[in-house]
Amino acid sequence: MKVLLIGDGAREHAMAEALASSPQGYRVYALSSYINPGIREAVIRTGGEYLKGNINSQEEIDSAIRKVSPDFGVVGPEDPLFHGAADVFRRNGIPVVGPNSSNAEIERSKVWMRQIMWKYKIDGRLRFRSFTSLEEASKFIVDYGGSVAVKPAEQVGGKGVKVVADIQAYLSNEKRRALSKSVDEIGSLVKNEVKIIIEEKVDGPEYTLHVLTDGHTFLPLPLAQDYKHAYQDGIGPETGGMGSISGPGNLLPFINSEEYDKTFRIVQDTANAIKQETGYSYKGFISGQMMLTELWGPTVIEFYSRMGDPETSSIIPRISSDFGYLLQLTAEEKLSKAKLEVTEEPSVVRAVAPLGYPLRRDLATGKEFQLDVRAMEEKGCKVYFGSISYEGGKLISRGSRALELAALGSFEDASRRLDGCIKMISANTELVYRTDIGRTLDEQMEKVEIVRYSYQNRVKRGSLGVSADWAPNGGLW
């Protein structure tokens, strides 16, 4: 059976390897914008073919489908989904894992996502306002007296989020003036008419629930937590993710089974609301990027229309059942036959990037990496190739996170193995990575107990999700 994978990062490497290792005997074909060494290995091992092209082009995806004649497809990244990659498969009569472009809007547009949640009264929703005028957005920030999060109105790769919390009143005006100056910068990231979304600020530990659905059956995967900030202890600019953790079991140390179940209901309710809104069943991954807050308990920060990266690298190694077959069942709308088995052991993932990432990607481009994957695996580390290309037998960086290293075991044991494996990587540049991932859980546990006490009191009082209207004129939006 032939499968065509669209994408070229560490997430797609993890999926390609799962497909190549499946007892189903898949032949893996791939369309990527560059030759990812890990995907290349899976393609060669299974006797498939590696195609190089524009993964956001419907025409090139259509050409690849006609050349390969796959039995099913898998679309990994969000941008091809936004550009209609899954639509192309379905027009050709090919089952595919991935929502059509109208349903992928749940990730592409934060405004549409918030509107859906309010229209269908889905739990975990936040108050918000959206702005086409950057001047009006700046004025709102200066005039409004509460805490806010300011975001680009569409998906821009995790960039541009700014937060102001008025903990000290005498700093309020200064903070607001500084934040309002960031509006032009954030707005410049957005191509569409609606530029800025301003949300009420909430606080708590973040986590992600990825759910596979074929439009009928919903299969929740183990939780993961992403570490967005570039530098140690969660400081510095936001990135696509410098690492992640998952486990033990289906949970995280600071999320209980009741919160997991409620999060799953929120994701299901959202997928059903999308179907009502667009007329199309949601098929593929729908992933809730959540925060546990005193306002709602599980609270939606955003949705993904695909698996997260680097969360995929922490989740797939923990799935002991056949993940490749789960993808096939999803594409063929037979997910009710799926059996998901998850190891109890947690996992820790660290991303490794060249010096210059994330602010000077030009400096992080064109660097040569050398590593012995087998030796690292013998040390207990799984290696996934990300923004790094295979060029004439060499591994050349492309400016972003080049590698993702995963290890299973207790959080501390996995972290120690990663310490050793990173020392086995050599490059003609310094490496950027974080060593605190999976090592700050005590702080999160203390924080979550306060949050949990607060939202559970709201449940008892019947005031879950209730807060004062926060727009200057008393309106909700």
From TrEMBL:
GO terms for molecular function: ATP binding; metal ion binding; phosphoribosylamine-glycine ligase activity. Residues 115-332 form the ATP-grasp domain. Keywords: ATP-binding, Ligase, Nucleotide-binding, Purine biosynthesis. It is an enzyme of class 6 (ligase). GO terms for biological process: 'de novo' IMP biosynthetic process; purine nucleobase biosynthetic process. It comes from the Archaea. Pathway: Purine metabolism; IMP biosynthesis via de novo pathway; N(1)-(5-phospho-D-ribosyl)glycinamide from 5-phospho-alpha-D-ribose 1-diphosphate: step 2/2. Its EC number is 6.3.4.13. InterPro entries: ATP-grasp, ATP_grasp_subdomain_1, PreATP-grasp_dom_sf, PRibGlycinamid_synth_ATP-grasp, PRibGlycinamide_synth, PRibGlycinamide_synth_C-dom, PRibGlycinamide_synth_C_sf, PRibGlycinamide_synth_N. Gene3D superfamilies: 3.40.50.20, ATP-grasp fold, A domain (3.30.1490.20), ATP-grasp fold, B domain (3.30.470.20), Phosphoribosylglycinamide synthetase, C-terminal domain (3.90.600.10). Belongs to the GARS family. This is phosphoribosylamine--glycine ligase. It comes from Metallosphaera hakonensis JCM 8857 = DSM 7519.
